[in-house]
Design goal:
- This protein is of the alpha+beta class and 250 residues long.
- The chain folds into two domains: 195 residues, Bira Bifunctional Protein, Domain 2 (BirA Bifunctional Protein, domain 2, 2-Layer Sandwich); 45 residues, Roll (SH3 type barrels).
- Helix content is 22%, strand content 36%.
- The protein contains four helices and twelve strands.
- It has a seven-stranded mixed beta sheet with strand order 1-2-3-7-6-5-4, sandwiched between helices.
- Helix 2 packs across helix 3.
- The longest helix is centred in the C-terminal third of the chain and has 22 residues.
- It is globular.
- It starts with 6 loop residues before the first strand and ends with a strand.
- The model has no long low-confidence stretch (mean pLDDT 92).
- It binds biotin.
């Protein structure tokens, strides 16, 4: 049970990327088990698909959680993390939606993202779950949707804003709890929770391979493997994270 594990916390003022820092720490045997890195700022934060993740000092949550497990063990892990983070933010009535596979949205704008990376170390397989959340306003449009970004400060008055450490602890606990549940129940643990926050559902979408449209259709939600289903003129097609990307058809 991951929720029973002791979490080794590392807090940094500045780092290249919390994911890279934690990956190096595991590779070099400086940490083992469950570890979390929280940074005030990143100089080379990374998003999915090689994109840059920008966060001004103190303006966002830059958090990575290291888990002693292989990525293949839970291919729907990014969805599980999205549900876990959404649940934390909803206690403050932030209207979170999840954009498959790894984006957190509020009012159709990007609030945060998840970047999961797995590798082997001398001690076995490790998965690093990177979570970025905008706390203060940012002026970086989301490259995939072309829409703007939003931040927690749009939903929470400064007086109610948790400290980064407090927010990080709540997020880590929630992620560990949902992973524990998914380890027992599989994707059933999060299927309904993801689906009711699914921002694509029943929207017209186009599926692209490096910017080239492959097919279009209606977004039908995730399947039992965590792939995304699109209803096309040729029938239902599954899109796997990392292979193709989905965009709302305008
Ligand atoms: C995305 O939306 O493409 C994923 C963004 C993930 C950003 C976080 S911030 C903490 C961690 N460290 C990184 O370099 N990236 C992730």
């Amino acid at each position: 049970m991951l929720t029973q594990a002791e979490v080794h916390w590392i807090e940094l003022d500045s780092v290249d990327s919390t994911n890279d820092y934690l990956s190096r720490a595991y590779q070099q045997g400086r940490v083992s088990g469950v570890a979390a890195v929280l940074a005030n700022m990143q100089t080379a934060g990374r998003g999915r698909g090689g994109r840059v993740w920008q966060a001004q000092p103190g303006s966002g949550l830059c958090l990575s959680l290291g888990l002693p497990m292989a990525g293949l063990q839970m291919p729907f892990l990014p969805l599980c993390v999205g549900v876990a983070v959404a649940q934390v933010l909803e206690q403050w009535n932030v209207p979170v939606h999840l954009k498959w596979p790894n984006d957190l949205l509020a009012d159709q704008q990007k609030l945060g993202g998840v970047l999961c990376e797995s590798f082997q170390t001398g001690q076995g397989a490790v998965t690093v779950v990177g979570i970025g959340l905008n706390i203060q306003p940012v002026d970086v449009p989301d490259a995939l949707s072309g829409r703007g970004a939003t931040s927690l400060s749009n939903y929470l008055p400064a007086s109610s804003m948790p400290s980064s450490r407090n927010l990080a602890e709540q997020v880590v606990f929630s992620v560990l709890r949902w992973i524990d549940m998914a380890s027992v129940q599989g994707i059933d643990a999060i299927f309904a929770e993801f689906t009711r926050r699914d921002s694509w559902l029943h929207n017209p979408v186009q599926v692209e391979d490096q910017g080239v449209v492959c097919f279009t259709g209606e977004a039908m939600g995730i399947d039992r493997q965590g792939a995304y289903l699109v209803n096309t003129e040729q029938g239902l097609r599954a899109v796997h994270a990392g292979d193709l990307s989905l965009r709302v058809r305008l």
